[in-house]
Request: fold
Amino acid sequence: MSEVLELNCRNAMADVVGEEHGISEAELADLQEKADEAHQHLKARRDAGELPFFHLPYEKELAEEILRFASDMRGSFSNYVHVGIGGSSLGPKAVHRALLHPFHNELPDDERSGPRIYYLENPDPDTVAGLLDFLDVSRTLFNIVTKSGSTAETAAIFLVVADALQKALGPKWKQNLVFTTDPEQGDLRALAREEHILTFSIDPGVGGRFSVLTPVGLLPAAVAGIDIRAMLNGAADMDRRCQSADLRDNPAYQFAALHYLANQRHGKTQAVMMPYADSLYDLADWFRQLWAESLGKARDLDGREVHVGQTPIKALGAVDQHSQVQLYIEGPNDKLITFLRVEQFRREVKIAPNFGGYRSYGYLGGKRLNQLLNVEQQATAEALAAHQRPNLTLHFPKVTPGTLGQFFFMLEVATAFSGGLYHIDPFDQPGVEHGKKLTYRMMGRDE
Amino acid sequence: MSEVLELNCRNAMADVVGEEHGISEAELADLQEKADEAHQHLKARRDAGELPFFHLPYEKELAEEILRFASDMRGSFSNYVHVGIGGSSLGPKAVHRALLHPFHNELPDDERSGPRIYYLENPDPDTVAGLLDFLDVSRTLFNIVTKSGSTAETAAIFLVVADALQKALGPKWKQNLVFTTDPEQGDLRALAREEHILTFSIDPGVGGRFSVLTPVGLLPAAVAGIDIRAMLNGAADMDRRCQSADLRDNPAYQFAALHYLANQRHGKTQAVMMPYADSLYDLADWFRQLWAESLGKARDLDGREVHVGQTPIKALGAVDQHSQVQLYIEGPNDKLITFLRVEQFRREVKIAPNFGGYRSYGYLGGKRLNQLLNVEQQATAEALAAHQRPNLTLHFPKVTPGTLGQFFFMLEVATAFSGGLYHIDPFDQPGVEHGKKLTYRMMGRDE
Reply:
């Protein structure tokens, strides 16, 4: 494990930002007993096979199967369209954005690492029609991703896509489809059986927001030429670092404990994730679902009304220094900010020493963009700390499949463990049922 | 004015969501006196010419000048690159995303409404090098947008771009540049004079976050073939609707008052903007800067420490039903949510009636994606209201230059007026100075 994520907590601690807003060593020590219980409970459930997301880093055979599929697919198709929403799209999107060329689809064919890649998430007519306008569907593989098989948005887009394929390809329409769904249950599984459509399975015990290391995330990554073995190895590396119950030693537990104490003792109702790298912006979106849907709950495990849940917020450095940092520095002190910082970008860009007579340009000449971006991250973290605003920095040595695997696994463990601290179920989402039922009723589906 | 934005406040009111979380008529009536004062103050400053953003909708000659420039440019260049950050990019990006084809850059040349469009906002080496990798810079116009002329991120990218142009074009490098900056001050203006580079001016009295109707937003819109006259007319239409001090009559004041009361009386520390249309997502990002930077302040006008500021949050419907709505429904009741709803999309997409024997698909056949998306918006608004979560819906009859102009102007007036309610200065941003100074120091610039 040569490239290791490191969490720097210094600016979240009371000795830097003060007792009112920072976490003290005493608070962490006080929490250790509760942490030990949460750890034992999580470990027992893991050992009983009740939390299969823990085992995903070790599914080596599945990875090989996906790689074989991807290799075939890459020879046969020019475009890959991922049809899914929420947990079925946030993980794969984050992986693609992190690891592909930032203008992947616009590169010439021989400079691209795989097919052009598109997402259809929202049943937005302008987007769906807009893509089908110019896409050569005969050269396109559509992956329909829904664990239940019944997600309304995905079902609707699937019907539109299947119709376009039938019109373009006639009886061969099924060759351009793959389904990623439950291994046994649901209408998409049944349809796959009836129509003999190729499928990949999502373990029924793994919720959408924990599914990035299942075929939901691995297949689209492999299709784009990403080393999914390295991603799984990164997750396994992080698993090894997360064995201890010690809040100082286990990075996932440390992240969870600091957020829990910031929320419960210091009024930090908002958790901002702010990468200083365009490539990592969608990791913040992935985290946003994981944190909100897992920890935003009305009732605790004993049925008491608690209405807990930090609001996770995505921001982008340095861009949001010109949008949100004024509020973060001067507004209510109700946020815990986590920076994602990249030590070594893929590219080095030198700033040409030109117009050196101008004060606004002279100091930049001869430096690198890399340096400017990282200096801005450090300056923002220090300015926040100087205003008693707690913040963490998660250091990525590089953005690689391995460090992404570490990141996903660390945050998933942190979330599951946080469920224990808050005494809530981090794996359900009862609050969305009401809206679903209303939608079905208004769309004329029997409930 | 055939297409008029309408704000529906029903689900934010106490008679729907209850006294604890909703705004009562009595609270609005109590606020009217303060509103009258804020209105008089704003009107006096407007009449004294101190708030030039109010006059932007009426700058017809400037629009004609920009249209002439855009017409020339569209004949000469295949690509337009917008170099700017914060208030220099959020407005134009929102306009492009709202009105252009969702896959604009990937359309064949003869189906595109103008040049391919790119943004360089962040000094991210992977993004900047990634774009310059494949872009034919000789066929590209670069617009460098910074009012001060000294914004570090924009200055650094400008130096990289100028170097690439000099290498590709030799002495003709300046023909592919335009600067948008202060009419008199700053290093970019001085350089433009020295090098005879074409410029457009930003009124020094208009801050970045209020600048979308200056050349900052109008030029890139016109370059893409967008009807900027209609956008200005839309803003002027909204100006006419915002003349009254009556909180029930003036949509900008109503929006501001509901947010103010929700924040100050009902603990709504977060303001979510959630468009149900992919095309409007970047409006939420534009709003995010406007609201955060204008209203997030440590001190009031009398110098008292207040630390006010709602956190503006962007969300996207229906996508975030699968990510954030669990938290919005069950978590802390600390949010006021504003939906943006589009009554008529540009496209209609019928859902083919296929696989009708399956319960998950049968009910969708024969319906339209348009209907599904809007039904989901309504279902989410109603589910939130049923859980005492206040929400507003801003109805866009269509997404057009005119409705966008209305939107921008309404929210700018709402923000300026909110400054009066909170008794703070909505036009400064003192909190970002500390980080800027640290950055300059670490990059070796004299302060």
Observations:
- The first strand of chain A starts at residue 6 and ends at 8.
